[in-house]
């Protein structure tokens, strides 16, 4: 099989065996278990710049970036130094610190779409709280979400489409009361009728529509700007709120995220990943008026022992400061576009059934011949077998992609052009093997 020998995973395999005795499935978050690709998970020992090293000493160019936060690569000196500096003074107080003000100011003064923010410790928490806020503000219970968007694992959001066009959701996890799922209406992406019908059917019951404006959890399902504008209008005319879940897109496609990219003002925006520089942070943000509903100012309760944690704030401050430097996004996005285009050119020249989708520094390699993939149903599930082969061939060539064909790849400022050239050649080789089979 293949033309390169499989990498040695002895130490990772031994660690995984041990981990299985401690953690369900041997992991603390399911996708890490490598269930959709070949082999056992790699246990990571360190990261630096665009590289990762596993427990067996294998070195990889990393395109997973801890699932998105590491836009400056691993162990960026500016982030590390700030974290170390702040840690000298202790690690948590459960009391306000100036660091929270500093990060909030960096975010708000450079983002015209928000006026006030609340920090949480994860994206899940941020989104869960944003929904509670939307329900608190509108006095309504139902929400509309889209099939193929992931918003973390809170009860209202682990819901998939039931049968039929406009459906109440079905839970996508055991342990969620059916009554919770009944408050979530799931519709396909890129479908105006479904949303319109939902608003007709549940008139004055819908608190919010939540969407990843750049859906990046089921492949990269780029929506048309007009569709997002349609969601803006229909929510406004029905007095419902529009929530942009920018846990991935926030500070990734530009400092103002997808809101800035498309020029659309949502009512609430959720963030995570990049704002924490690799430490656990999430946030939700909105206008001063809407945020005034949050406790202790208003009646919507939300709290966190480690919220606004100084060490996490420090990492966020250092990382965002770098992102604000002139030309940062322009260079990063151009580098990613060039990378995606070269892979596309190679595949097209060889008539391989493959499309590379890209926006900002996010890309997705999809085994399809469709020019656009805008809803979960459009994703070619059969292509996932090809991804499995690609993933193995890439690991064997020192390239680390997220372990599922539904995951997007991320490029950081540390992926230099020389390294990307080498990676491209390895990807071409790997594709030749994928399509030979
Ligand atoms: N929303 C989106 C769009 C996400 O991609 C994720 C995580 N990948 C979440 C929410 C949940 O964030 P977390 O894993 O930090 O809880």
UniProtKB/TrEMBL annotation:
Give start-end of the signal peptide.
none
Q: Which domain of life is it from?
A: Bacteria
Pathway assignment: Porphyrin-containing compound metabolism; protoporphyrin-IX biosynthesis; 5-aminolevulinate from L-glutamyl-tRNA(Glu): step 2/2
Q: Which residues carry this modification: N6-(pyridoxal phosphate)lysine?
A: 273
**CDD domains per record:** OAT_like
> Per its UniProt record, what InterPro entries does this chain match?
4pyrrol_synth_GluAld_NH2Trfase, Aminotrans_3, Aminotrans_3_PPA_site, PyrdxlP-dep_Trfase, PyrdxlP-dep_Trfase_major, PyrdxlP-dep_Trfase_small
What keywords are annotated for this sequence in UniProt?
Cytoplasm, Isomerase, Porphyrin biosynthesis, Pyridoxal phosphate
Q: Look up keyword Transcription regulation and say if it applies.
A: no
Q: Name one GO molecular function term.
A: glutamate-1-semialdehyde 2,1-aminomutase activity
The EC number of this protein is: 5.4.3.8
Keyword Isomerase appears in the UniProt entry: yes
Chief location of this protein within or outside the cell: cytoplasm
Q: Which cofactor does it need?
A: pyridoxal 5'-phosphate
Q: Which SUPFAM superfamilies match?
A: PLP-dependent transferases (SSF53383)
Question: Which subcellular locations apply to this protein?
Answer: Cytoplasm
Q: What PROSITE patterns does UniProt report for this protein, alphabetically?
A: AA_TRANSFER_CLASS_3
**Family named by the database record:** Belongs to the class-III pyridoxal-phosphate-dependent aminotransferase family. HemL subfamily.
Q: Could you describe the subunit structure of this protein?
A: Homodimer.
Question: Per its record, how is this protein called by name?
Answer: Glutamate-1-semialdehyde 2,1-aminomutase
> Lineage of the native species?
Bacteria, Pseudomonadati, Bacteroidota, Sphingobacteriia, Sphingobacteriales
């Amino acid at each position: 099989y293949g033309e390169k020998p499989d990498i040695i995973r002895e130490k990772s395999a031994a660690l995984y065996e041990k981990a299985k005795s401690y953690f369900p499935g041997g992991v603390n978050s399911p996708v890490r278990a490598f269930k959709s690709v070949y082999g056992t998970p790699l246990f990571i020992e360190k990261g630096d710049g665009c590289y990762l090293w596993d427990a067996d000493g294998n070195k990889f160019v990393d395109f997973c970036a801890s699932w998105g936060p590491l836009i400056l690569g691993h162990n960026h000196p500016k982030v590390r130094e700030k974290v170390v500096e702040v840690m000298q003074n202790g690690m948590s107080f459960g009391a306000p610190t100036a660091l929270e003000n500093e990060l909030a100011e960096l975010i708000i003064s450079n983002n015209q779409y928000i006026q006030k923010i609340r920090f949480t410790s994860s994206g899940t928490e941020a989104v869960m709280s944003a929904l509670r806020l939307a329900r608190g503000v509108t006095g309504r219970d139902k929400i509309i979400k889209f099939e193929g968007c992931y918003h973390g694992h809170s009860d209202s959001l682990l819901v998939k489409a039931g049968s039929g066009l406009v459906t109440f959701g079905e839970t996508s996890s055991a342990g969620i009361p059916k009554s919770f799922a009944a408050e979530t209406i799931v519709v396909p992406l890129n479908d105006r009728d479904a949303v319109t019908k939902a608003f007709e059917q549940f008139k004055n019951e819908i608190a919010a529509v939540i969407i990843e404006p750049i859906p990046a959890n089921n492949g990269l399902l780029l929506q048309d700007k007009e569709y997002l504008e349609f969601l803006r209008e229909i929510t406004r005319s029905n007095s419902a709120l529009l929530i942009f879940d920018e846990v991935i897109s926030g500070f990734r496609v530009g400092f103002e995220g997808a809101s800035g990219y498309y020029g659309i003002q949502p009512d609430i925006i959720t963030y995570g990943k990049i704002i924490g520089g690799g430490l656990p942070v999430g946030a939700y943000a909105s206008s001063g008026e809407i945020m005034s509903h949050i406790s202790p100012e208003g009646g919507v309760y939300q709290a966190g022992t480690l919220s606004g944690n100084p060490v996490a704030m420090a990492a966020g401050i250092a990382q965002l400061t770098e992102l604000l430097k002139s030309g940062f996004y322009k260079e990063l996005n151009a580098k990613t576009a060039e990378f995606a285009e070269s892979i596309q050119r190679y595949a097209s020249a060889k008539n391989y059934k493959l499309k590379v989708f890209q926006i900002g520094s996010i890309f997705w390699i999809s085994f399809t011949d469709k020019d656009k993939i805008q809803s979960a149903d459009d994703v070619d599930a059969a292509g996932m077998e090809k991804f499995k082969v690609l993933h193995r061939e890439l690991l064997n060539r020192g390239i680390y992609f997220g372990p599922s064909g539904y995951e997007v790849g991320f490029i950081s400022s540390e992926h230099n052009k020389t390294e990307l050239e080498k990676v491209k050649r390895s990807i071409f080789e790997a594709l030749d093997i994928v399509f030979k089979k």
